[in-house]
Amino acid sequence: MNLPMTAPVFPAGKEPLPPGISDEERDAYLQAKKYQDYMTSGMESCVTKTIIAGGGGFAIGAFFSLMSSSFAYEDPLLRQNLSTQQKAREIFKEMGRGMVKSGKGFGKVGALFAGIECVFESYRARNDMVNPVAAGFVAGGILARNSGPKAVLGGGLAFAAFSAAIDLFLRRETADDD
C-alpha cells in the first residue's frame, strides 16, 4: 500500500533499475555498481589522493627537467676526448639524474600538500577556500623547517598565498556562452 508523500520501500536486491536495464542484466549492473563504489571510496581516500599527487608531481618535475635540459649549456672542452656515442650516453645519464632529482622534489611537494589538504578537508568536513590556504601554510612551513623560524613563517605565508591564488583561479565561475 503506497501512502501519499512517503518514499516507497523495496526489498534488498529488488530496487527499480535505471531506464534501459532489464531484469536479466540486474546482476551485471549490481556488480558494476559495486566496483564503481569501490573506486569512488578509493578516490576519496587521503592515501590515494596523496599517492596520485606525488606521482603526478614526479611526472611534471621530470618533464620540466627534461625541457630545461635542452637549454643547458654544454661545454665543448668538457668531453673532448670521448666519442660521439660516449658523449651522448653521458649527456643522457646527466639528463636522467636531473629528471629524477627534479621529479622527487615536485613529487614531495605535491604529496605533502595534497595529504595535508585532504586531512584538513576530512577533519573539517567542508570543501572551501580554508583547506588549501591552511594546507599551503603548513606545507610551506614544513618545507622551510631547516632554515629557521622566519623562513618557516615566510614559506608558510608564501605557499598559502600561492595555494589561495591557484584555488581561486580553479574555482572561478566561467561565463556562459549561451
How does this model look, in words?
The chain is mostly helical. It has five helices and no strands. Helix 4 runs antiparallel to helix 5 (149-171).
Rg to the nearest angstrom? 26 Å
Q: Kindly state the percentage of residues in helix.
A: 55-70%
Mean pLDDT: 88
Number of strands: 0
N to C succession of SSEs: HHHHH
Form type: extended
Strand content: under 5%
- Main sheet makeup: none
The number of helical segments is 5
SSE class:
mainly alpha
Task: Explain briefly what this protein structure is.
By secondary structure, the chain is mainly α. Helix content is about 65%, strand content about 0%.
What are its keywords?
178 residues; mainly alpha
Q: Layout of SSEs?
A:
Layout: H1 26-43, H2 46-69, H3 84-124, H4 130-143, H5 149-171
Helix pairs in contact: 2-3, 3-4, 4-5
